[in-house]
Amino acid sequence: VCSSTWLKFCMDVHRYVVFCLLIFGVSLPVIALFICVSLCISVGACLGTDCTNVNVLPSLSAAVSDEQPQRSIWLTFLFTSSAVRLIFLRTVWDIYLHIFQKCLKTDLSSVIRFQFTVAILEVISLNLMGLFPSARLYGKHAPDS
User: Fold this and answer.
1) pTM for the full predicted model
2) What is the DSSP string of the chain?
3) Residue closest to 66 by CA, chosen among 139, 132, 18
4) What's the mean pLDDT when you consider all of the chain?
5) 87 C-beta neighbours (distance < 10 Å), count
6) Please, which residues have CB within 8 angstroms of residue 104's CB and are 6 or more apart in sequence?
7) pLDDT band at 21 (very low <50, low <70, confident <90, very high)
8) Per-residue pLDDT at 49 exceeds 80
9) Could you tell me which of 71, 90, 85 has the C-alpha nearest to residue 121?
10) Structural domain boundaries of the chain?
């Protein structure tokens, strides 16, 4: 027999776990960026330019392009983040609907639907950009052999 206190406790634990997973998931690209930029700076390979200038900080594309282990770290963190965001998409959708209907006393489902469509397009675009870096597609950007 389930008591209401036990059920409430289980729901609270579930919410906490989902919240932690979501925060972890959306933080992964930022963490990967810091790791990749740090590795890039420590090696110094991605700070040079075609002209005589030397960059203090590398661009994102230089930090995660074809250098290993940066590329593997970036793709692993990016795909994991995308999976977490897509797995919990419906949960976050329900949370948004509940919060906005409770606080604003109005139906904003069309606005939320638009925001989620943009978020899904962002995830897909970011994954495609991660899979196909400019250094592989354009000889002009490729490092000299």
Assistant:
1) 0.73
2) ---HHHHHHHHHHHHHHHHHHHHHHHHHHHHHHHHHHHHHHHH-TTSB-SSS-B-SS--HHHHHSS-TTHHHHHHHHHHHHHHHHHHTHHHHHHHHHHHHHHHH-S--HHHHHHHHHHHHHHHHHHHHHHHS-HHHH-TTTSPP-
3) 132
4) 80
5) 13
6) none
7) very high
8) no
9) 85
10) 4-137
